[in-house]
Amino acid sequence: MAKRPELLIENGELAGRRFTVTDTGLRLGRSSSNDVHVPDEELSRSHCLFEPDGPDGIRVMDLASANGTFVNSVQLAAEPRGLKPGDIVTAGGLRICVVEEGEAPPSAAEPRAAAARKGAAVDLGLSSADAARAAEMAQPPPVRRSPLANILWAVAVLSVTAAIVLVLSVPSGKNRRPKAPVAEADAAQADRLDSLYYEKVEADSSRIFRYQMTIDAAGTLRVVYDDVPSENRHVDKSSRLNEAALARIGEIFDNSGWDGLDEVYSGPSAADENALKSWRIRLVRGGKMKEVLVENVFEPESFIPIREALETFSRNELGIWAIQYSRDKLLELSTESEQIADGKWEEREVEYGNLASAVKAYKEAVFYLETVNPKPAAYPELKEKLRRAVAELDVRYRDQRFLADKAINLGDWERARDELRILCDLVPDKTDPRHAEANSKLVDVEARINSAKKGGKRK
Question: Which residues pair with 235 in a beta bridge?
Answer without folding.
Answer: 225
